Amino acid sequence: MALVIDSNLCPQNHRCPLINICPTGAITQTEFGLPVIDRSKCIQCGKCVRKCGMAAIYTVAD
User: One MF term in GO for this entry (predicted)?
Assistant: First the structure.
């Protein structure tokens, strides 16, 4: 499984709160741009999927 951030659902107008929720620091963001998930750090715990208020992060099959 892989995590995807949907740029059509992510508002990209604020600092992404999921950056602070990710236990491994796998989510980063430059200014108010689309957040990026570092797959080498992601442990697929699902916290970001559950906490994203816009449902912009979801899992897909590899």
Answer: iron-sulfur cluster binding
